[in-house]
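Reading is simple: each integer encodes one residue's backbone shape. The lines below illustrate:
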Amino acid sequence: MKRTYQPKLLILKRRSGFRSRRRKG
């Protein structure tokens, strides 16, 4: 069951992707 890595991937993408994307964009 991939239910433990799913929420962690969403948080990592939202924390690193959302903050880095908004600052670069």
Notes: The radius of gyration is 11 Å. Residues 1-25 form one domain. Residues 19 and 25 are 10 Å apart (CA to CA).
